[in-house]
Design a protein that fits this description.
This protein is an alpha/beta fold. It is elongated and about 55 Å long. Helix 3 crosses helix 4. It contains six helices and seven strands; from the N terminus they run E-H-E-H-E-E-H-E-E-H-E-H-H. The protein has a single domain, classed as Alpha-Beta Complex (Maf protein). A hairpin with a 4-residue loop joins strand 5 and strand 6. Strands 1, 2, 3, 4, 5, 6 and 7 form a seven-stranded mixed β-sheet that branches. Helices cover 31% and strands 24% of the residues.
């Protein structure tokens, strides 16, 4: 008896992030989730582009080694300011410090995307950056935000999609990149592999 054939364009998201799952699902693409059993590199002294590219790649490669016929998408995101990455806070005191540091200033959110498929040697690495400007936050504003949003699992101690109006003055670039998965870039990548239809935005 023959085993059922795998889908020609089987897609796996190599991420534990529920936000990335929700964003990818919004494209209407069918995918599975397999969380890579790896230790992420989170040295704040490492160049953030290098760090997120490395983490995205090791996630994708770990899954691709075990699922060689699938197209595997890995992603990693961090916040960058003053020459250093702000990863997930250790505790609420650390979160307070991060938000004080971001207050009234512009920082950059970097996401690394890695696409792998062992079957035919697919290997793509792409980086996306978005600039985010914070409102000036006093101690009360920071405390209010931390009471409303669980930030200990979020780079930079904030989530723009959760009460972002309390802390964010504006941004330049991809909003979904700040959340954790730049959909515009992801959609274009997956379109090339026949996973989603893509209609270019009309020129303004």
């Amino acid at each position: 008896m023959n085993s059922p054939a795998l889908p020609a364009n089987r897609l796996i998201l190599a991420s534990a992030s529920p936000r990335r799952r929700e964003l990818l699902a919004s494209l209407g693409v069918v995918f599975e989730v397999i969380v890579a059993d790896i230790t992420e590199h989170e040295d704040p002294a490492t160049d953030p582009r290098t760090m997120v590219a490395h983490n995205a790649a090791v996630k994708a490669e770990w899954v691709a080694d075990r699922q060689p016929d699938a197209l595997v998408l890995g992603a990693d995101t961090t916040v960058f300011i003053d020459g250093a990455a702000l990863n997930k806070p250790r505790d609420l005191d650390d979160a307070h410090g991060m938000l004080r540091r971001l207050s009234g200033r512009t920082h950059t959110v970097f996401t690394g995307l890695a696409l792998r498929r062992r079957r035919d040697g697919v290997r793509e690495d792409i980086g996306v950056a978005t600039d985010v400007t914070f409102k000036t936050l006093d101690a009360d504003a920071i405390e209010t935000y931390l009471q409303r949003v669980h930030v200990l699992d979020k780079a930079g101690s904030y989530a723009i999609q959760e009460h972002g109006d309390l802390i964010v003055a504006g941004y330049k670039g991809s909003w979904t990149n700040i959340v954790g998965l730049p959909l515009e870039t992801t959609k274009q990548i997956l379109t090339r592999y026949g996973l989603v239809g893509f209609t270019p935005m009309p020129a303004s």
